[in-house]
Amino acid sequence: MEKQYKHWEDVRDLLRNWREENCRQSEDVVDLWNEVLANHFGKLGDEGWLVLEQVFIAALDCHNMEVANFCLSKLNQEFPDSLRVKRLKAMKYEASEKYDHALDILDLIIKKDETNAASRKRKVTIYKSQGMIIEAIKELTDYLRIFMADQEAWMELCDLYISQQEWNKAAFCVEELLLHSPFNHLYLQRYAEIKYTQGGYENLEVARSYYSQAAKLNPKNVRALYGLMLTSVHMASNSKCPSQKKKESIKLSEWATNQLSQLQDSNDSKLFSSQILEGMGNLQIGNDSKN
Amino acid sequence: MASTCELSKLAYSKIILHAFKYPHTAINGVLLANEGSNSQSVKYVDAIPLFHHNLGLAPMLEVALMQIDSYCRTAGLVIAGYYHASEAVAEMNPDPVSQKICEKIAEYFPNACLVLINNRQLSMQMTQTSLSVIQYSDGKWKVKDKENLKILPNNEAALNSVSTLLSKKLYKKFVDFDDHLDDVQQDWLNVSLKSMID
Questions:
Q1: Segments of chain B with pLDDT less than 50
Q2: Confidence (pLDDT) at A275
Q3: Residue A238 contacts B, CB cutoff 8 Å
Q4: For residues B166 and B125, what is the distance between their CA atoms, to the nearest angstrom?
Q5: Confidence check: pLDDT of A2 > 70
Q6: Is B70–A197 a contact, with Cβ atoms under 8 angstroms apart?
Q7: Which pLDDT belongs to residue B179?
Q8: Which of B24, B55, B57, B89 to mutate to test the interface with A (most CBs of A within 10 A)?
Q9: Would you say the ipTM is above 0.90?
Q10: Of A230, A129, A217, which is closest to residue A178 (Cα–Cα)?
Q11: CATH 1.25.40.10 given to domain A97-182
Q12: Homologous superfamily of the B4-193 domain (CATH)
């Protein structure tokens, strides 16, 4: 963060942006609070409580317990019976690795308010922090049975399944996301990546079609372009591929390569695009078998 | 037959900077050695950071390894090892993805090492190397003793150097392959940082 924000209003606006975009800039948030905003807290009005919550979470992320405790005590003073503040207390226990205490508080909150989605999700993170991925997956799937439209949760479940190498289940999660947003090039690209990793000629074909759609929607999506190039070249060199599709694949990979060269301005990167096509066969890591 | 694993200050610094840039996710990267190295006692001269999202997905890993391989051929280096930091702070075992990748590397460079970051030992003022190494040889994973892991020129100098880099928050300018895929103008070789590290 090079720019020196001297005016507290600028800092307030910046934090508001980060809140809205859900950015994880914990170090910067705590620094800005300490250097600028803490002295002007009174001028923030009602927004001050949102800022305190944001700084609290950022402080926990940086393990700066002094700032975290300050924020929490101020919030507790103002909102003594709030479930939202209780959840923040649970997060503090979580940050101190006192997971049992955290779980107790969260269970209390859920008992009082069954629709409290955020607390249920914190339970998932507690299991995840302890490396109990299977339990985290179970908790998250139970959550999704109730809150089916939560895209963030589906994405998290997808990540958990990927870490367990459960490709079909991960693909299912992305399919749910695609139902919500069929024109999201990032979801399409993620689906293609899972299919490619799964391996096998049929999955390669599916991956190629999803990469194509992603690249069509956003020709600047570098991962989609590389993916398109990879899948096309692998398909073209696979014995199962009929000649019609081979020609198609070669054309697609040429298009992708052109798009990539256009995006890469610097001299060094140009060197690599062409060498990728040369080195194609050697480093296949996925489960894919060419035969 | 104790074989040593040495890390240059550059390689070690890059590993730590990568971990500090993304403290909340798992990260991984490859280690490079000089071409024609004696694979029993390896000296890693450089590290290339790979990803901080979805380390288990194959396509971008393949693209990255191909590009790194191309670079290595021009620089007289080989991909000879792999480093990884787990997402969970307490996790000290290599996950199946890391093992698979390292086994693949070992096909080309026998006795490749898997360097694991000990998350708990990391701090702004580094007092411990915070690494543990397992080596893949003869189809088996063997844990290397701490004495056989050395950071050049010597552990203390390297730790001091890294602590200085951390205090200057140089990790904010560090670029991994994921960053490059998000914005191709970013340099995953971190050439500009190299002069600051040396």
A1: 1
A2: 59
A3: no
A4: 8
A5: no
A6: no
A7: 94
A8: B57
A9: yes
A10: A217
A11: yes
A12: Cytidine Deaminase, domain 2 (3.40.140.10)
